[in-house]
Amino acid sequence: MENLSLSDRCYTNELECWSCKCVTIKYGRTACGVQRRRCKSCGKTRVAQFQYKAYNPNINNLIILLTKEGMGIRSTARVLQISATTLLKRLVSIARPLSCPVVYRNKTYELDELCTYVKKISIGMDCLCVRPND
Question: Best exposed site among 20, 27, 57, 83 by fewest CB in 10 Å?
């Protein structure tokens, strides 16, 4: 792999491969006319800039950040300029590999209660907080 400085990469318009971090070269265009790039070492191709924001590789990190900040589904979708349905699917795929926290015996835990109302019917649910009270 050729060792290029940041200014050389900007000048030659080369991007790094998303899988092996090697230099990519131009490799034609998509049906929509967007420039494709091909890795010199592994041969994988990718689009240089995505038209739809949900295909951005950094979008999952932004979803996690905005969810931690307390933004709702619709407002997060509006800020990221993606569909609310796509956002919900991404949240499910992000949460799927997460495991439940380990609950130890003989420790005191703080519980938060969540009560919702659906057409005059009260549904109460208890959620377990992660941090114990010592």
Answer: 57
